[in-house]
Specification:
The complex is a heterodimer of chains A (166) and B (140). Chain A has 166 residues and is of the alpha+beta class. Chain A has six helices and four strands. In chain A, strands 2-3-4 form a three-stranded mixed beta sheet. The longest helix of chain A is centred in the first third of the chain and has 23 residues. The radius of gyration of chain A is 17 Å and the shape is globular. Helices cover 23% and strands 38% of the residues of chain B. Chain B has three helices and nine strands. Classes of the chains: A alpha+beta (166), B alpha+beta (140). Chains A and B meet through strand 1, helix 1, helix 2, strand 2 and strand 3 of A and strand 1, strand 2, strand 3, strand 4 and strand 5 of B.
Chain lengths: 166, 140
């Protein structure tokens, strides 16, 4: 079996000035996840490592760099699934967590549930020792500018983020 | 949104997806990402999928599971992805992208949006792209 790892950094319309940042970010994440596969680690370890790197990269809309909600806050979602057993874990509307994908994995491994949401997810994070981070550390200038631009009357946030058909 | 799929040396598959959601979303809005079958799916018998795109559209067609359903019918990862994205566009005018692996190590990165940053590592080579039809390669 030849191991393989494939990552994405989001669909839509990437501004020209961020294109190389995005490409460099996905290349770095793919290399890191693949290195784990080559050392014999599991597919689950590899995808969580790759997504953690992408969450930590402010060029992408997850973790640090997340888009903002209508109130200017960060609410994040994440999911993991293991093809061996169909085990799965997820978090939704979670705040002040640097790496929601790691919290989703803990939901899979340490609870009987598939998804924890909002304040319940935060309580679970505290219970399993996942530290909270200041929300400001997840917000980039780029995300704040896009949020402000799309508060204007007549703006179309979905089209702004997704662009048009390719 | 960011995501990853993988097959390890024992033939096990997995997926992971993470997102900040949609720009200027309502407080409390949850999209496809945390929903099994929508924001990802992994089954050693079929493969693994991680999507990105318009979450409400992805949920309406359960995009990840739909791709694996097409693969179960014998389509390749790329053909199954294209068929599912076309179905989503026809039914709900949704834009999205996906990364997909099958248990034998076949893979695909497909999208119907303008762009999707993606990269794939296998057998000493790193493939990557951003725009339609791009597939650049580097040695790992």
């Amino acid at each position: 079996m030849l191991p393989v790892l494939v990552v994405h950094g989001g669909a839509g319309n990437v501004p020209r000035q961020r294109a190389e940042l995005s490409c460099a970010g996905v290349r770095e994440a793919a290399r890191a996840g693949y290195a784990l596969l080559q050392s014999g680690r599991s597919a689950m370890d590899a995808v969580v490592e790759a997504v953690t790197l992408l969450e930590n990269n402010p060029a992408f809309n997850a973790g640090c760099g997340s888009v903002l909600n209508e109130h200017g806050g960060v609410e994040m979602d994440a999911l993991v699934m293991d093809g061996r057993t169909l085990a799965s874990g997820a978090v939704s509307a979670v705040r002040r967590i640097a790496n929601p994908v790691q919290l989703a994995r803990l939901v899979m491994e340490k609870t009987q549930h598939l998804c924890l949401t909002a304040e319940g997810a935060s309580k679970f994070a505290r219970a399993v020792g996942v530290p909270e981070v200041p929300e400001e550390t997840l917000i980039t200038d780029y995300a704040r500018k896009r949020w402000q631009r799309n508060l204007q009357p007549g703006s179309n946030p979905v089209e702004c983020q997704m662009g048009k058909m390719g | 949104t960011v995501g990853a799929v993988a097959v390890d040396s024992e033939g096990n598959v997995a997926c992971a997806t993470s997102t900040g959601g949609m720009l200027n979303k309502m407080e409390g809005r949850v999209g496809d990402t945390p929903c099994v079958g929508c924001g990802g799916y992994a089954d050693n018998l079929l493969g693994a999928v991680s999507p990105t795109g318009h979450g409400e559209a992805i949920m309406k067609v359960t995009l990840s599971r739909l791709i694996l359903f097409y693969m179960e019918q014998g389509k390749t990862a790329a053909d199954a992805s294209d068929q599912a994205l076309a179905y989503m566009w026809e039914r709900v005018q949704g834009l999205a992208g996906v990364v997909v692996v099958d248990p034998r190590g076949g893979w695909a990165a497909r999208f119907n949006s303008l762009q999707m940053a993606w990269a794939a590592a296998q057998n000493g080579q790193l493939h990557y792209g951003l725009g339609k039809g791009e597939d650049f390669t580097l040695p790992l």
